[in-house]
Amino acid sequence: MVEQIYNPDVVIVGGGVAGLTVAINLAPRKVCVITKDSLGINTSSTWSQAGIAASVDKNDSNEMHISDTLKTAKGLGNETVARKIISESKATIKDLEEIGVKFDKNPDGSFNLGLEGAHSHNRIVGSKGDSSGIEIMRGLIDEVKKLDHITVLENVSIDSIMHENNTIYGVIGRFTDKNIPNNHVVIQSSHIVLATGGLGGIFANTTNPRTSYGEGIALAAQVGAVLTDMEFVQFHPTGLDFGLDPTPLATEAIRGAGAHLINQNSERFMLGIHEEVELAPRDIIAQNIFKQIDAGNSVFLDCRKNIGIDFKIKFPQVYSYCTKAGIDPSKEMMPIIPVAHYHIGGVKTDLRGRTSVEGLWCCGEASATGVHGANRLASNSLLEALVFGKIVANEINKEPLKQNAEVISSSFIRTYKEKTKNKIRAKKFIWQLRSTMMRNLGIVRNQASIAKGLSDIIRIERESRGMSAKLNDMILVSKFIICGAFKREESRGCHLRSDFTEENDKFLKHLDQSKHTLEKDILNIIDRRNNIDKENILAS
Prior knowledge:
By secondary structure, this protein is of the alpha/beta class. The protein has helices spanning 17-24, 44-47, 62-72, 79-87, 89-98, 132-146, 215-222, 253-256, 282-294, 311-314, 316-324, 380-398, 423-440, 447-464, 469-487, 515-539; strands at 2-6, 10-13, 31-34, 52-53, 124-125, 150-153, 156-164, 167-175, 183-187, 192-194, 227-228, 233-240, 260-263, 299-302, 334-343, 346-348, 360-362, 367-368, 444-445, 496-497, 512-513. A five-stranded parallel sheet has the order 6-3-2-10-17, sandwiched between helices. A hairpin with a 7-residue loop joins strand 8 and strand 9. Helix 1 (17-24) packs parallel to helix 12 and helix 14 packs antiparallel against helix 15.
């Protein structure tokens, strides 16, 4: 077994928009950025299509943007956080342009702004149509490569955080490159930033890379960090139903450009449901598509009339997906399904990006800052990642440099052979987990489905017996989602329960969780299910 030991000032786990923004702004501190793949590959940031929500138009304002954000958040949005993020939107766009990011502009030099659901104005700053994530990541990666204070450690998976007495002092992981078997990595540092992205990979249908399965949330939970809002998983209404995994995304900007949602009978089923019709908030769109599918209907995105031959130019990424599937969106309807897309909850942070554990920071989708509440306003996510990435860096820069304690690394290195001895079986259990989470904790939940999901997860945990570090993380994250969904006995934002269909002021609050509360929450679900089973038996 070979060990490699690094001693940077700051460790950043994750190489997407949030992680790279932190790294760039930490100069001159020595930074180690850790990515599971090559830099820029398989990140949700790269796959982001529409762009960044920013109130840069002369007819728009920060106050309108804040109002739209809080309205969409369904009573749980933190106005202070929303105001902080949105007030930085213009400066954030300027910062990106200064490092060479090219945004779409009109002939007069103004931004060619897109429109997405629940926005009262066109305010989506994009690049090359639906290629915004690719362009923003290109600019950030180019900047990272210029800076001497950053070391990028590619193809490394972090398995645990080294900690003691609520204090962080490093991480330990292993190379994922098959050409470097059994090589372990120890990175010693008193500051760790988790910027690992979302958790869509724990669902059968997702727009996320399969490497996004809540790894950062699991790492934080294992050292006792507080999590919050875990039940709020946003399902994007328009995944392209082409039978691909992950599911390609049809950006909301397509509906902003005039596309209609119809079923196989050419009915615009959103008419009469919401005043904004196809541009209603994502939770409402996704839930009504689900109802159509549940009723046996097929659902399509119809771009033929209002976009037509311009589709190829306006949305080149989506057009390429359609072409590979043999569909011409200017002449044919695109079949769609709702898919797991963005996790609103995560590791609870304060306004400075601090978690409840000393030395542990978090930003981007892995974090829960409170800005999104119960439902995220479209394209606020990249803005949040960029703003909080800079905030975290600035806060760490205020901290005095600490001498990293020498660690006897062998005392922290686990034996991984047991966890990877049967990869085929591990894959089987992973797909079982994804299937049950999609089926039971998907767009619509209820007490019975939540309890069934927990039962399946416990069985998978028992039968897999810790054979995969990845599977262990997926199991842990799934349990937190299940417990949050069970405790929130209402429907709010992207959390829809068929047995509690209305909002309830009793739940006008955030539900915090941690590893210390998890076992009790699980036992409560089991007890409730057992009591109901007993009542049903007696009644019969």
